[in-house]
Structure formats: structure tokens, C-alpha cells
Write a structure and sequence with these properties.
The complex is a heterodimer.
Chain A (H helix, E strand, L loop, with lengths): L1 H48 L3 H7 L1 H30 L3 H15 L5 H10 L4 H6 L9 H25 L3 H9 L4 H30 L2 H6 L6 H12 L2 H29 L6 H10 L10 H29 L13 H44 L2 H19 L2 H11 L11 H11 L1 H14 L2 H9 L4 H12 L1 H17 L15 H10 L3 H36 L1
Chain B lengths: L1 H9 L5 H11 L6 H4 L1 H8 L17 E5 L5 H11 L3 E5 L2 H10 L8 E6 H9 L3 E2 L21 E13 H7 L19 E4 L5 H14 L1 H14 L3 E2 L4 H7 L5 E6 L4 H4 L4 E4 L7 E9 L5 H12 L2 H11 L4 H4 L23 H15 L9
Parallel strand pairs in B: 1-2, 1-3, 6-7, 6-8
Antiparallel strand pairs in B: 3-10, 4-10, 5-8, 5-9, 5-10
Helix pairs in contact in B: 4-14, 6-7, 7-16, 9-10, 9-16
Classes of the chains: A mainly alpha, B alpha/beta.
């Protein structure tokens, strides 16, 4: 009797201690999100109050429409291309899938700007294709160039999402349709497409937001076509007018929030999230299932043409970039040299190493916090009214930095953390934090997907047999989210390697990173050096992701064996 | 073609590295080229008694520099060697640096600002972001090449001219322009690339200097005519030269210095020094107020400007002799161009004029330069 009493009391104390630990960790997580997701945005908002919204809006109607028009066109074209490619690839050999996935992967980890330069070299007035082959002499600058390049650039990420959606359709459903005599095109139209529409919608909306925030493409090939993002750049660099930049940033953010709300509704319907670009590429590479059917007819031909045009365009683009990294001048006649790589070794070795270090740290922070946020949210979802509302607010707070254009987020960070009590400007810490919190939304989504699928009774059962709240979270939730952790880590690492706008204001002489050096080389017209840095960034990111991916895939296979 | 010959020899800058690159051309001989090879040797043999060499850093800190080019690495290494202070640097445009400085709210993450259009330095001084640096050699500067109260100093100047692509001009059947006035010729419609003066310090100098040269009214009339020939204004100072060398346009209004050598190798391109004169933008150096290592930053300013050998070394890195405009009696730097090629301009007006000039600029170029403020 006595011993039993003692055990109960001990257990009680243990539980109480564990609850305190849980509450403390929960509070710390919320505190960090408030500090590093919400506070910088509030700082930006308060700065924008210094600028006159009415005047800025009145003067910028044209560029707002430009941004929206380019965004809509890019979203539609990019999604349509991605859908055609995904259909072709989903119903084909695994070899073609490998090629397309490899190119898609390379495209996602490529720094921006550089592909636009390749576009000018290929299709410009003295471009290889337009001038040397076709004998044309046309200017590539303007809205068409912007839409073309953005469509191709964002196509990659859309292919990943759509392909995984299509591959996830139960093959038995397709077989059943075939058995009752439907042709492949009928199967696509009646079965595959209806199941894919929510993902197509998500692609459209996310591409629109990405197009709005992208300023690298319009600044290189936009010509007189200006967008909100390029106007922000000009205000910052040309006029040092932070108030007007902040107003434009808030405007951009407003449009993004409205569109994102639409996306959230679609996602809630399909329960399929756009997360883990890098990992899903690796996973799909490991997916050896054969296609349930082949495409035929007009649909097959159209999808095939689009798919192979995409492959050709991407290969041409990468050949151009690699070639540019090995030449002295800018034109096609420039002579071969290794000077750009010599320069890279002399000047960029430290920034490159630092980039990798920062990106790994940022990925670790995003992954740990992403898990904690997702766990808190799931707890909130299961709770009563106020808890549910709190979790929704947490989700929104985490998503904000992801939607904001990088330059605006960076501006918010420098405004929020330039003075005591929390003076972080000038340190590497602020760079790691901005990179981590920018991608926190993706990490949190990845974890949410997995945690939501956990049976809540599992944790309750663990607690019934005496596990503390802390231990049950640790033993039940943590191991089952290994896949999400890989998704989160690889995504955050990859984005951190190529995110430019967010760190623009935070770079100091002591902590310059490779992507910053790349942009500086581009701005100074040293295209060869920029291309060389770009090639090396892609190679390093690819290598790190490959190591992570293969480690993760191996573990997956073993897990399957256990089943 | 004559322009090409003239330009290469009369202006592109004599100094050690440039002399090597130009040695082939130097054979043909002209005003500056013969003497350019002597620049480095006379620099190293210079042993002026006035030169200060006893500066030593005692802070134990690292000097953090925002500069306009990585090529200054060698100069910073020399500073470390001489003075014993480590240097870290990052290269960014003066507009970026100024915005960053303003957003940092008076707690700059760098100590020294090395290079960039003087208009940004004037604006930074007015916003109270710079530190006064008083030192003996400050009296050596020519008027208008340092701040009257010693808040900034000039280490040279960036001059503005044209770069032309002869292949493209052949294609449209036009001659290369010789003067600013030529640029409004209808034959050049949509063939001229210019950066917006808001972003490019050198192009700001061009606009302000031409307004001073022509007078306000005639000047704005000129720019509205020029606007007819310019399809759009680019957002980066390097765009005019890179786009012209890529064959995307026939004529670029650009800074001219040794860094263009690489582009000029292709042979299709030439430089033009407009007959009315070349506008120029003094290139600034300043110490940030409230910086972590103000002492070493001041030491750097004194180290550089109190020793001719250091300035000659800087001139060899910059591949230009414009330091002579700032401190005319520097030994070991050979003048490689005639200052009469420069446009007469009052650079002290650049700071005070800037806001009004850019506002009017947006009005005149409306539709191509979208008003965004």
C-alpha cells in the first residue's frame, strides 16, 4: 500500500515536471515565432506608416498592374507546362522520369538571375539561337522575356507537386477505368485530371505569389517593364527611401495574403501540401513502380512535345551557364579561360564555406522549430475554442515570412534588431535566423502532415501506461516524423543557399556569403565570375542534398522491409 | 576607329597592370602610354620625407570595410602589413550601402566606406552618419575633393563617356557618336542604353554636369530629346557596358576605367570621349560614425592619404590616375589623361541638387522610368 502510494506520488511529480517542461518549450516556441516572424513584419509595417500609402498607390498603379499581369500569365503558362510534363512523365519509363527529375532538381537549386543571363545569350539580339542560327536581330527585353523565364523557372517546382499528386493516384482506379474500356486520354480526362485539380489550383496560386516577389528576372530582362519588386529595389538602392520601400512591400504582401488565403482553402480541401521539394524529388527518383499506362493520341503528342522542349531548354540553359563560367568576355565569341574559377578560389572560398555553414544551421533551426510549431498546432487543433484559434494564429504567424518578398523580410529584420536589448545586426546569427524563419512555414507544414496522420490515441495510450507528456511526445511523435524532418531540412538548406533578397541588408564585411558575392559580380557586369559561383553553388547544394537524400532513402527502404 | 585608338591611349590609365595589358598598343605611341609603364617603378622608388610610415594599430580589432570592388583586397593587405590591423571587406554599391546604413539606425556593421559616388557621401554626412577625420595631410586635397569639415575625402573620380558596338552600328548604318549632342540623332533610336541616375552615381554625375553645362532649360530639353532614343533605363551601373558588349544595343553611356579592358578585347567595341567633355563623379572615402572600430578606420584614411606610395598603389589597382585630381602633388602617379577632357562641373552641388534633379528626371522620362515614390 505504502509503496504504491509512493510510486503514484513520484509519477505525479514526474508528470508535473514533464508538464512544466512541455509548457516551457511551448512558450519558448511561441516566443521565438513572435520575436522572429511577427516582430520584423511589425517593424516593417510601422516604417511604412512613415510613407504615404495614397501617394505611393496613385503613382504606382501601372506597376501594380504589370506585376499582376505578369503573375497571372506566368502562373497559367507555368502550371500548364508543368501539367503537360507531369502527365508525360507519370505515364512513362522511369528513365525519362529520372532525367526530368534531375533537371527539375537542378532548376530548383539554381540561383536566380543567372538563368535570365543565359536567356539573353540564347535569344538576345546577338543570341546563339535568334541571331547565329535564325539570323534575327530582336530585343529580348520586355514583358515576354519576363513571363517566359519565370514560367520556365517556376515550372520545376510545379512539376514536382503535380507529379507526386498524379503518382499518388491509386493505380487500381486507373486499371479499373482501363478495364471498362476507357482509352488513356479518357482516363486522363475523367479520372486523373479531376483528382489533380486541387493541386493545379495550388500551383497557380503559389506561382502567382512567387512571380510577384521575384525581382531578379524583371531586373535583368524586363527592359521598361517594371514590377512592384523592381520598384522596391530601385527605391532601396537608388533613393535610400525606406518608407516608400516599406509601403510597396506591404502592398505586395497584401496581394500575397489574399492569394494565399485562396491557396489555404484549396489545400484544406485536398489535404495535400506543397512541401519538401528536394526530398520529394529524391523520393520519386527512388520510386521504381512502372507506369500504369502510356499516353497516346493528341494528348500524348502534345505532352511529349512540351516535355522534350522543356528538357532541351533546360539543358541548353545549363550548358550556357557552364560555358559562361569558362569564358573571358560576354559574347559567344569570347575565348576560353579558367580565370573565373581561379578568382573563385582566391576570393570566394571563405564565403562559400560560410554559406554552407549558415545554411546547415538555418536548416537545423527551421527543422526543430518546425516540429515544435506543428506539434503545438496539432495539440491546439484537438483542443477547445481558444486553443483552436491560437493554433490558427500561430500558423498564420509562421507563414508570413514565407510569403513576404525576401528584400522586405530582410528590411524588417534590420529594422527590428538594430538596437538593444536585442542587437543582432552585424552578426551571423541574424542571417541564420532570417534564413530559418523564412522557410519555417514549409518545415511546419511538412511536420503537420505527418503528425496529423498519427493516431491521437497512440499518445494517450502511452500516457495511460505511465509515460509522461514529454516522453510520449518524444517517443511517439518524434520517430514517426523522420520523413518530415528530411523534407524540412533539405528544403531549408536548399533555400538558404540561394536566398538573396533576405540577406541583402544583413551582410557585413565579416559574414558575406556566396550568393551575395554572386549578385555583386552580376551587378558589376562580371558575368563569368557570377556563372562560376553559380555552378559551384549548384554543385555544393546538389552534393549536400544527395548525401541527405540517400541517407534518408536507405532508411526508408529498411523501414519498408520491417513492414 | 580613330576614336578607339585615341581613347585607349589617351585615357585608359597608366599604371603597372594596365601598362602590361596595353604594352602592345603602346608601341604605336601617344601621350600617356609611354610614361605609364614608369608609374609603378617610380612609385616604389618614391621615398618622400613627408610620407608617414609610423602608423600602428593598437586596437586588436578587425577593420570592416564596405568597398566598391574586391580588387582593393591587395591594398587592404598592404594596410595590414604596414599598420598591423586585419581587414575584412564586402563589395556593394553606394546606394545599397547608404540604405543599409540608414536602416541600421546609427549602429553601422562596418567601419570604413571605401569608394562610391560622392552624392551618397554628402547625403550620409547630412544624415549625421559619418565621423570627422582630422589629419595633417588633409590639407593636401584640392578644393571640392574633400568635405570642408573633413567628413569625407575623394580617392579619385569616375568619368563618363560612351561605349559603342561597331557591329551593331554597322547593322543600322550609323556612325559612332562623337558628342553628347550627337546622341539625340534619330538614327540612334532605341540604340542607347543608360542607367537610371537614381541608381548609377556616374550617370547622376552625367545628368547634373550636363545640366550645369547647358543650363537648366536647355539641359532638360536635351534630356527629353535623348529620352526619345532610349528604350528604357537600366537599374545597374554596369548594364550599359555589358549590354553593349553583348550586342544588345549600339551605344552605352557608361563609366570608363580599366575594368572595361576585358570587354574591349573583343574588338567590336570602342570607347568615345564626347567632345563637350566627360562628366565625372568624385569617388568617396569616409569613416562611419559610432562604428565598432572607428580608430582603425581613421588610421586607414590617414595611412592612405599621408603616403604617396600607398596612393600610387591604389592608382595601380584602380587602373586610373584620377587621384591626381584630388591630391595634385602625389608622387609616383603619372597623369595619363588631360584634365581638359573633363567637363567643367561644380560637384559640391551634387548633394544639394540630387532630390530636385531626380524628381524632374522622373517627370521628363515618364513612361520609361516609372515613377515609384
Amino acid at each position: 500500500m505504502k509503496t504504491q502510494d509512493l510510486t503514484t506520488r513520484r509519477a505525479l511529480i514526474r508528470h508535473r515536471g514533464s508538464t512544466v517542461a512541455c509548457v516551457a518549450i511551448g512558450a519558448a516556441t511561441v516566443g521565438l515565432v513572435l520575436l522572429f516572424s511577427v516582430d520584423p513584419i511589425l517593424s516593417l509595417l510601422s516604417k511604412s506608416i512613415g510613407g504615404s500609402f495614397g501617394r505611393v498607390l496613385a503613382n504606382n498603379q501601372q506597376i501594380v498592374w504589370n506585376s499582376i499581369a505578369a503573375g497571372v500569365a506566368t502562373a497559367v503558362i507555368s502550371t500548364a507546362l508543368a501539367l503537360a510534363i507531369s502527365l508525360r512523365v507519370a505515364f512513362s519509363s522511369s528513365k525519362l522520369r529520372g532525367v526530368v527529375l534531375a533537371l527539375v532538381f537542378a532548376s530548383i537549386i539554381s540561383p536566380p538571375f543567372v538563368s535570365s543571363l543565359a536567356y539573353v545569350e540564347l535569344f538576345g539580339r546577338r543570341g546563339l539561337i535568334t541571331h547565329e542560327l535564325l539570323g534575327l536581330s530582336i530585343s529580348p527585353y520586355g514583358p515576354v522575356g519576363v513571363v517566359v523565364m519565370q514560367s520556365v523557372f517556376f515550372c520545376a517546382i510545379n512539376v514536382l507537386l503535380l507529379l507526386s499528386t498524379i503518382r499518388n493516384i491509386d493505380p487500381a482506379v486507373l486499371d479499373a477505368a482501363r478495364d471498362v474500356g476507357a482509352s488513356p486520354s479518357q482516363v486522363v480526362r475523367r479520372v486523373v485530371l479531376p483528382l489533380t485539380w486541387p493541386s493545379v489550383g495550388a500551383c497557380l496560386l503559389l506561382t502567382f505569389i512567387r512571380s510577384l516577389a521575384d525581382y531578379g528576372t524583371p531586373i535583368v530582362i524586363g527592359g521598361s517593364f517594371e514590377t512592384i519588386s523592381t520598384a522596391i529595389y530601385e527605391q532601396v538602392v537608388g533613393y535610400s527611401d525606406l518608407a516608400t520601400s516599406a509601403v510597396l512591400g506591404v502592398l505586395l504582401c497584401g496581394i500575397a495574403i489574399i492569394v494565399y488565403a485562396g491557396y489555404a482553402v484549396l489545400i484544406a480541401r485536398s489535404r495535400k501540401r506543397v512541401a519538401g521539394t528536394a526530398t520529394s524529388a529524391f523520393e520519386m527518383l527512388g520510386d521504381r513502380r512502372s507506369a500504369p499506362m502510356r499516353l497516346r493520341g493528341v494528348l500524348g503528342i502534345v505532352c511529349g512535345i512540351v516535355c522534350f522542349a522543356f528538357i532541351a531548354f533546360m539543358i541548353l540553359q545549363y550548358v550556357t551557364i557552364v560555358r559562361a563560367s569558362l569564358t573571358a568576355g560576354i559574347s559567344w565569341k569570347a575565348s576560353f579561360t579558367t580565370a573565373n574559377y581561379d578568382h573563385l578560389v582566391e576570393y570566394q572560398a571563405t564565403p562559400l564555406a560560410r554559406s554552407v555553414g549558415f545554411a546547415l544551421l538555418a536548416a537545423a533551426v527551421a527543422t526543430v522549430l518546425g516540429f515544435l510549431c506543428a506539434y503545438l498546432q496539432e495539440q491546439g487543433r484537438r483542443g477547445r475554442g481558444p486553443a483552436r484559434k491560437a493554433q490558427a494564429l500561430l500558423g498564420f504567424a509562421v507563414t508570413m515570412p514565407y510569403m513576404l518578398p525576401g528584400t522586405c523580410l530582410g528590411l524588417g529584420y534590420i529594422l527590428a534588431f538594430n538596437a538593444a536589448p536585442l542587437k543582432l545586426t552585424g552578426t551571423g546569427v541574424i542571417i541564420v535566423l532570417v534564413l530559418a524563419f523564412k522557410e519555417l512555414a514549409i518545415s511546419q507544414q511538412a511536420f503537420s502532415n505527418e503528425i496529423a496522420q498519427l493516431d491521437p490515441h497512440l499518445e494517450e495510450a502511452a500516457r495511460d501506461v505511465g509515460a509522461t507528456k514529454f516522453a510520449s511526445a518524444l517517443r511517439i511523435a518524434v520517430p514517426s516524423v523522420r520523413r518530415a524532418a528530411a523534407v524540412s531540412f533539405m528544403n531549408a538548406f536548399t533555400s538558404a543557399m540561394v536566398a538573396y533578397g533576405a540577406v541583402l541588408f544583413l551582410i557585413t564585411p565579416s559574414n558575406k556569403t556566396a550568393i551575395f558575392e554572386l549578385f555583386d559580380a552580376l551587378s558589376s557586369g562580371k558575368y563569368g565570375q557570377a556563372a562560376a559561383t553559380s555552378v559551384v553553388i549548384v554543385a555544393i547544394t546538389l552534393a549536400v542534398d544527395a548525401v541527405l537524400g540517400f541517407l534518408f532513402l536507405k532508411r526508408r527502404r529498411r523501414a519498408h522491409g520491417d513492414d | 576607329m580613330t576614336q578607339k585608338g585615341l581613347s585607349r591611349r589617351s585615357f585608359v590609365v597608366g599604371s603597372a597592370s594596365a601598362a602590361l595589358a596595353l604594352s602592345a598598343l603602346a608601341v604605336t605611341g601617344c601621350s600617356g602610354s609611354g610614361s605609364s609603364s614608369s608609374a609603378a617603378s617610380s612609385a616604389s622608388s618614391a621615398s618622400q620625407t613627408a610620407n608617414k610610415t609610423d602608423l600602428k594599430s593598437t586596437s586588436g580589432k578587425t577593420l570592416k570595410v564596405i568597398c566598391t570592388s574586391e580588387s582593393y583586397k591587395k591594398l587592404f593587405e598592404k594596410f595590414t602589413q604596414d599598420v598591423g590591423c586585419e581587414v575584412e571587406f564586402v563589395s556593394m554599391s553606394s546606394g545599397e550601402a547608404l540604405s543599409k546604413l540608414k536602416a541600421e539606425g546609427g549602429t553601422p556593421a562596418a567601419d570604413l566606406w571605401f569608394g562610391g559616388g560622392i552624392d551618397s557621401f554628402m547625403s550620409a554626412k547630412d544624415s549625421g552618419l559619418l565621423e570627422q577625420v582630422n589629419f595633417e595631410a588633409a590639407s593636401r586635397f584640392a578644393d571640392t575633393f574633400k568635405d570642408p569639415d573633413n567628413y569625407w575625402f575623394s580617392k579619385g573620380a569616375t568619368v563618363v563617356g560612351f561605349i559603342v558596338n561597331n557591329d551593331i552600328l554597322d547593322e543600322i548604318g550609323a556612325e559612332a557618336p562623337k558628342s553628347w549632342a550627337d546622341l539625340t540623332n534619330a538614327a540612334y533610336k532605341d540604340e542607347i542604353v543608360m542607367s537610371t541616375p537614381a541608381v548609377s552615381g556616374t550617370n547622376y554625375a552625367a545628368v547634373d554636369a550636363l545640366l550645369q553645362y547647358m543650363g537648366e532649360d536647355a539641359g532638360w530639353q536635351y534630356f527629353s530629346q535623348l529620352n526619345e532614343n532610349i528604350p528604357y533605363y537600366t537599374k545597374r551601373g554596369s548594364d550599359p557596358s555589358t549590354r553593349v558588349s553583348q550586342g544588345e544595343a549600339g551605344i552605352g553611356i557608361t563609366y570608363i576605367d580599366g575594368t572595361l579592358d576585358e570587354l574591349l578585347k573583343s574588338g567590336e567595341l570602342s570607347l568615345v570621349y564626347p567632345t563637350e567633355g566627360m562628366p565625372y563623379m568624385p569617388d568617396g572615402v569616409a569613416v562611419f560614425k559610432n562604428a565598432d572600430d572607428v580608430d582603425d578606420a581613421k588610421l586607414f584614411v590617414e595611412w592612405l592619404f599621408s603616403n604617396d606610395e600607398n596612393m600610387a598603389y591604389l592608382a595601380s589597382i584602380d587602373k586610373k590616375s584620377t587621384i591626381l585630381m584630388c591630391i595634385p602633388d602625389v608622387k609616383g602617379v603619372e597623369a595619363t589623361f588631360d584634365t581638359s577632357q573633363l567637363m567643367k562641373e561644380d560637384t559640391t552641388k551634387f548633394g544639394p541638387n540630387r532630390e530636385a534633379v531626380l524628381a524632374k528626371w522622373q517627370e521628363v522620362t515618364a513612361g520609361k522610368e516609372v515613377v515609384s515614390s
